[in-house]
Amino acid sequence: MNFNKFSFRIRYGETDQMGVVYHGNYAQYLEIGRVEWLRNLDLTYKSMEDNGIILPVIHLQIDYKKSAIYDDLITVETYLKRTPLVKIEFDYKIYNESRELLAEANTILAFIDKGTNKPIKCPNYILEKLI
């Protein structure tokens, strides 16, 4: 599966005094998108960590288009950009419930062996789920 979408409401604590989402929260929304993308493959970050793999973000780019506001129902669409090797890359689109584009983003994460802290290839059990 190369695509997933997940929707949730903006909470009050994620906004400033004007009810606009603080820009730094978008990185968390992207993480929610990745976690749910993995979950659709019957994988979790926890299971990967239990298998000795961590996935730190090594690149993050966000292009803000329009503000999300308190109580908006937003949808994070997460796209796997290409078959992962040592890195895994995602593109994202975040929409409000009127289907207005709020942000476009890209992240790159590296597969790292938890014990050695060195890069490794994407595990076969993940690649098999992408076919």
Automatic annotation (TrEMBL):
Q: Which Gene3D superfamilies match?
A: Hotdog Thioesterase (3.10.129.10)
Q: Name one GO molecular function term.
A: hydrolase activity
Which InterPro entries does this one have? 4-hydroxybenzoyl-CoA_TE, HB-CoA_thioesterase_AS, HotDog_dom_sf, YbgC/YbaW
Check the record and name the SUPFAM superfamilies matching this protein.
Answer: Thioesterase/thiol ester dehydrase-isomerase
Q: Which UniProt keywords apply?
A: Hydrolase
EC numbers listed for it are 3.1.2.-
In its keyword annotation, does this UniProt entry include Hydrolase? yes
Q: Does the keyword Iron-sulfur apply?
A: no
Q: Which family does it belong to?
A: Belongs to the 4-hydroxybenzoyl-CoA thioesterase family.
Enumerate the NCBIfam families for this protein: YbgC/FadM family acyl-CoA thioesterase
In Swiss-Prot or TrEMBL terms, this protein is called: Thioesterase family protein
Biological source species: Croceitalea rosinachiae
Q: Taxonomic lineage per UniProt?
A: Bacteria, Pseudomonadati, Bacteroidota, Flavobacteriia, Flavobacteriales
